Amino acid sequence: DSGVTQTPKHLITATGQRVTLRCSPRSGDLSVYWYQQSLDQGLQFLIQYYNGEERAKGNILERFSAQQFPDLHSELNLSSLELGDSALYFCASSLTPRTANYGYTFGSGTRLTVV
Amino acid sequence: DAKTTQPNSMESNEEEPVHLPCNHSTISGTDYIHWYRQLPSQGPEYVIHGLTSNVNNRMASLAIAEDRKSSTLILHRATLRDAAVYYCIPFQTGANNLFFGTGTRLTVIP
After folding, report:
1. How far apart are CA B4 and CA A79, in angstroms?
2. Mean pLDDT on B40-53
3. Cβ proximity of A44 and A88 under 8 Å
4. In this predicted structure, what is the pLDDT of residue B72?
5. How confident is the model at residue A12 (pLDDT cuts 50, 70, 90)?
6. Contact, A35 vs A44, CB < 8 A?
7. Which residues of A touch B97 (CB under 8 A)?
8. Which residue from B54, B63, B51 is spatially nearest to B18, judged by alpha carbons?
């Protein structure tokens, strides 16, 4: 157990639907990151939050959004789902952002299948 | 971001040492060198990181070249559980995220 909790572990949904993925960071970590991993794209950074505020955006589609709540858990919302959104979604946390002398802790991911 | 070059794949016999190389010739002076690994069906896992000096921890050792243009992750005795994709990532202070390349897929042969 890495200390980063992601739910659900698996999700199967139909095209056009909307889903919410949840992440609880490791205790004490203030920064949360979301990554997408599909077979042909590798690990792609989506978005980062620090202490409730968005800090950086990567290759995140407009159909996707995220937020970090006062208790520091984060949710990634995926809407108007397409077949190509099927992927593993990982959440990671770190003590602070923009400090390269700390490692990231990753969760075990949510496997999303869009049918 | 500094670019990295890693072998696509490597093999090692169980209980033998493994040296995983990484070239990062465009690294800047303030970039730390991070290594992560991803076991099958799991999230990436932090292995080790360093700036200039060689580093050791319970998982591995990191040897950094004097000019910092390359580094080597050393697993002292490979086990079957070490079979994973290993990512070498130059990480700049002030950057907002880790950039994962394609990594090296390590196969451990019993």
Report:
1. 34
2. 93
3. no
4. 97
5. very high
6. yes
7. 33, 45, 48, 56, 58
8. B63
